[in-house]
Design a protein that fits this description.
about 525 residues, mainly alpha, Growth Hormone, Chain: A, four-stranded mixed β-sheet, 4 strands
Length: about 525
């Protein structure tokens, strides 16, 4: 066998004279962090039994997905405090009006996009648990500081830094889920993960209802921010003690369970568990790959509608006849619909595996229909308007979180490409959300027809069409790869520091989807 080996993280092909396939070889320090652990324990651990697998799946579901669900829900409660504060005296205390409120929401996403570059780099270099602890801790401090805000400039600064610290939270949470969950289980539970942010108006809605009803002397919005800030501070303590860095470091798993988790993740999703070396060529490929740009285009267009959930309370006021208390309850009811919609999407993906792209498309339909109805009905039809706004604002997020998962799972096993593409997606998301609040100009009240038209055409029609195009391209690639795939070219080689070569699952080589022709895209 003739082999060209270099001390580089570039993939090297070793051509086998006795066969027609190329075996991929890579230095151990650029391979999956799990390689050494699996080399030491894989042969000692038996195949997982069906009973053990069910028990392990339940444990991972509650300890990993349960924790990321809780973090995501409280993160959205933090972000939504400004919307609920708007009906609790915050505007009067800080001198905000409709256009200033729009600007404040825009500045949040300026902070969000500024945080992408350092954040994406840091989450590859440092333990995820420490990153998430710092993020949640600073969230709580910033929410507490909202109590002291007294002018427009102060609110601008607070929202910028809240966006800055939130910028890489979703990539961290979805990366963690990807380390522990099998491909199908992760795809099927993405809507449940999304339900966490759609469920956030339920607890914060009832908290806000109680705060408004109590009429505290220090100001309703201050009480609201103290409560939400306190919950976030408690969350940061939970994260500090319980958040796992990766399966290897997960204290709640035994050695056997760690091996089973790694086998399942690498075997089903063809993904690297974790890789701490930034690979420049993988980053460049993420930018050159037109699939990245199609998915970014989806986020850019779809998220132009993302100010709608924060705008709906003000829309209720424009309609008249709804008190602050009742508008809060309507928002809670809308969140209940969103949770049910998320569960319906989850059930669909369980019954029909490999349906992520289709789910993104069909879950957008209520938003399209609701938007058309909302812009068509007169404000005097209060019940119809309420139903249309709730339908439009509470359902399109299912497609958002599924598309975020699609961006990561179609990058191959490469940890760097996944993170860079996630950064590109979040930058697109940020740009859209910088623009989104500006669509709701006070001069267009009370119907805001221009904003609705943008959402109908760009967010709920063209954006899902882009995902249809992604499906078509990746389906074609899969058909070509399935014709040529065999067991031999699913094996890779890791070369340790002493020059020894170890055969591993090719997923452990941390290759991109374009480097690894055995990678089958999840659709």
């Amino acid at each position: 066998m003739s082999t060209k080996l270099e001390d580089s993280h570039e993939v090297v092909s070793a051509t086998a004279t006795e066969s027609s396939f190329d075996k991929k070889i890579i230095s151990s320090k650029y391979a999956d962090v799990a390689v050494e652990f699996m080399q030491a324990h894989d042969s000692e651990v038996p195949i997982v039994s069906p009973e053990q697998d069910k028990k392990l799946s339940r444990k991972v579901f509650w300890r990993v997905l349960g924790l990321t669900f809780l973090i995501n829900m409280i993160m959205y409660m933090d972000k939504a405090t400004l919307s609920y504060s708007s009906i609790s005296g915050f505007w009067e205390a800080t001198g905000l009006d409709q256009n200033m409120y729009n600007n404040v929401n825009t500045v949040f996403y300026v902070g969000f996009i500024v945080g992408q570059v350092p954040g994406t780099y840091l989450i590859q270099k440092y333990p995820l648990s420490k990153m998430m602890f710092l993020i949640t801790f600073f969230w709580s401090i910033i929410i507490f500081l909202h109590c002291a805000a007294y002018n427009y400039a102060g609110v601008i600064v607070l929202r910028f830094f809240l966006g800055f610290f939130e910028s890489v939270a979703i990539p961290i949470l979805t990366t963690t889920n990807g380390m522990f969950l099998s491909q199908h289980f992760r795809e099927a539970t993405q809507p449940i993960f999304y339900a966490s942010c759609m469920a956030s108006p339920i607890p914060i809605g009832f908290i806000s209802y109680g705060v408004i009803y109590a009429k505290a002397s220090i100001g309703d919005y201050r009480v609201l921010n103290i409560i939400i800030g306190g919950l976030t501070l408690i969350l940061s303590a939970i994260v500090y003690f319980l958040y796992p860095d990766n399966p290897l470091e997960a204290k709640f798993l035994s050695t056997e369970e760690k091996v089973w988790v790694i086998r399942k993740v690498q075997g089903t999703s063809h993904a690297t568990i974790e890789q701490k070396h930034f690979k420049k060529e993988h980053a460049v490929e993420a930018f050159k790959d037109y699939i990245s740009w199609l998915i970014c285009g989806f986020f850019l267009l779809q998220q132009l509608a993302n100010n709608l959930p924060y705008q709906q309370t003000l829309l209720y006021e424009e309609m008249g006849g709804l008190s602050n208390l009742n508008s809060t309850l309507v928002t809670v009811a809308g969140a209940g619909f969103a949770v049910l919609w998320s569960l319906a999407a989850c059930l669909f993906m369980v019954i029909f595996p490999g349906s992520t792209c289709l789910t993104i498309i069909w879950t957008t339909v209520p938003s399209l229909v609701g938007s058309i109805v909302a812009v068509s009905l007169p404000l005097s039809n209060a019940i119809g308007e309420l139903a249309a706004i709730c339908m439009a604002s509470q359902s399109f997020g299912v497609g958002w979180i599924c598309a975020f998962g699609l961006a990561a799972t179609t990058a191959g096993s490469s940890y760097t490409k996944r993170l860079v593409r996630n950064g590109m997606v979040m930058a697109s998301y940020s740009i859209a959300n910088i623009i989104s609040p500006q669509l709701w100009q006070g001069r267009d009240a009370p119907k805001y027809i221009p904003a609705w038209i943008v959402q109908i055409v760009l967010s709920f029609t063209i954006a899902p069409a882009l995902i249809g195009l992604v499906w078509f391209i990746l389906k074609k690639r899969n058909n070509e790869r399935l014709r040529d795939i065999n067991e031999k070219n699913q094996v890779g080689v890791v070369r340790d520091d002493e020059g020894n070569q170890i055969e591993v699952n090719i997923a452990a080589l941390d290759l991109t989807d374009l480097q690894d022709k055995t990678f089958i895209y999840p659709l």
